[in-house]
Known about the structure:
Elements: H1 18-24, E1 32-36, E2 42-46, H2 51-58, H3 70-90
Antiparallel strand pairs: 1-2
Amino acid sequence: MYIATSRVTAQGQISIPVEVRRRMKVRTGTELVWDLRDNGDMVVHPKQHTLAEVQAILNAPGLPVIHATDEDITRARGAFLAHRLLRTDETED
Length: 93
């Protein structure tokens, strides 16, 4: 499936076309993972944080310890995703 193309600058930078950013839900600050597959294909996807990384963020020195149930986390995630969807609709690139 063809979506768009990008050009590499002399500094090795690229611009990600708006349609690609929308489909991948890429925003400023999103880290991208470049994954070279065994068949030679390169797959690019937004980095997903591991549970260990999230725990490290939540339990950073100086921050209060957070105790949350699975239900609390599910509700918070739903609220975050709803807010992010609203932001995306408001700030069309």
